[in-house]
Amino acid sequence: ITTPDVGSPNFQLCLFFTGDPWDIFYWHFDDIICPWESSANGNLSGEVIDLEFGFPIADAAVTIAGITEYTLADGTYLIENIPVGNDYTVTCDASDQGYNVAYGIVSIFEDETTICDFTLTSPTMDIEPLSIVETLLLGDSLETNITISNNGNGPLDWTANVQQTTMFMTDYSLFTGGTLIAKYDIEPENTEPGGLQTENTRDEVIIHWDGVNYNGIGLVEGGAFVVAARFATEDLIDYYEDYDLVGVQLYAYDPSFTNITLKIWEGGSFGNPGTEVYSENITGQVNPETWTNYILEIPIELVVNNEYWIGYSVEHPAEGYPAGCDAGPAVDGKGDWISLDGVSWDELQDFGLDYNWNIRGVLSSGPMWITVEPSFGTIAATFSEDVTVKLFSTEVDSPGIYTANIIFSSDPDVGTTTVPVTLTVTGVGVEDIPILATKLNSNYPNPFNPDNLGTIISFSLKEKSHVKLSIYNIKGQLVDRLIDDEMNPVADYKVVWNGNKDDKTLANGIYFYKLDADNKTFIRKMILMR
Prior knowledge:
Blueprint lengths: L20 H10 L10 E10 L10 E4 L2 E4 L5 E8 L1 E9 L8 E7 L4 E3 L2 E3 L5 E3 L3 E6 L3 E9 L6 E9 L15 E3 L14 E4 L3 E5 L6 E5 L3 E9 L1 H4 L7 E9 L6 E11 L2 E10 L8 E12 L6 E9 L6 E3 L11 E3 L6 E2 L11 E6 L5 E4 L2 E4 L4 E9 L7 E12 L5 E10 L12 E2 L14 E7 L3 E9 L4 E10 L3 E7 L2 E2 L2 E2 L3 E9 L2 E9 L2
Parallel strand pairs: 1-7, 1-8, 10-31
Antiparallel strand pairs: 1-4, 2-3, 2-5, 5-6, 9-11, 11-29, 12-28, 12-30, 13-16, 14-15, 15-26, 16-23, 17-22, 17-24, 18-21, 18-26, 19-20, 19-22, 24-25, 27-29, 30-31, 32-33, 33-36, 34-35, 34-39, 37-38, 39-40
């Protein structure tokens, strides 16, 4: 007998028999076959190897009919008890090892083992050039190319994202925890923020969870902590692709802070801010007891489906309340995130403080000073593709040095390549105004991180001269010589120093760079900080 259908497991069994009823009953019950528990099964096995070298691939995931097994060290696998059927799709996935996903079509027969072997291909992603350094007059633009080559034996899917260069990294060893305290103990009559708040003008959108400033929060004994507002995918759905994060507004409740470092994270989730993509010490630009409006030097593109956390780290002595907040109540999971150790995150309401941080993001639909076209694609094995990088000094407000990273990602994962971009925007060209004096300028950025762009040292020459540009440590010892040559006059020069000597990164600390030129000597100080 069979049941009416798979979705009706409850049925009545009626037997008519003579003789010993119990023997006959059990014999018939054991013969009942339910469609969802069919005994007609077979097996699948095979071997997974590398196409180019022929060696076995371990830990590849082979999936059929919702059943997954992983290959052994010798590249073999066995999947048992697969229901009999035709035209099963078999997937072999070792993309985490840099291989393309492979597929097969098989039939499974009762009490038999079907063989399905896989030979996996793997692409490569080779990028040229590995950095871009350009100079533009204010109001000009230019185009340059980056070539992506796939020298492997399988197709490569790639994506390119432009991200702000991290300019200053917080020393999280300073975060020792502590007890939070608010300026006012008495709760006001709460004004419900009502979810995501937006304030729109013709060109900008301000997103936030908070209301007007009401209170300030600090640590009883002083110290350092991080605060942030979280904007998830559902909050940004109307702004992806068309808008960039161009600024941050924050309210410092009192002047007790000794350091405020603006921070932006990308790609996080509940309780995890994701990757820190922007960090800058803005202590000197924060106005206490009022709103500070800070414009990012390089806008951050809102990548589709990524969430963004906006916040800052703050250090202060005892009896301070530097972190401004509203009157609450907190918007759960969004407006009140805090980290006391720089690693783990909690909500302010977990400490009995039902407020939202006074942190707001400024979005703009205006173009960035750098674009990448196309920003994604597929490259067949042994082929290449050019990506056009466009630089627009028309999109910056003033002369200066602008930096960004173009991050190339791959699928399957054959690595990530970061191409640093430095654009120097000048107000006028050298041909317009002659160099009036030989001088050495301040390096930028300072402090600098050798793992990113390094730092740019610039100087001007009025007269033709033999130039020496040297780096010294704090003991006065020569650690590097960047220039030792005759150089032409009436020109500006720029040199990038990445903090390395003989391919080894020098220790954190203070260094001096010295220019000897035109019978003059100039010395300036810089800070190397990883």
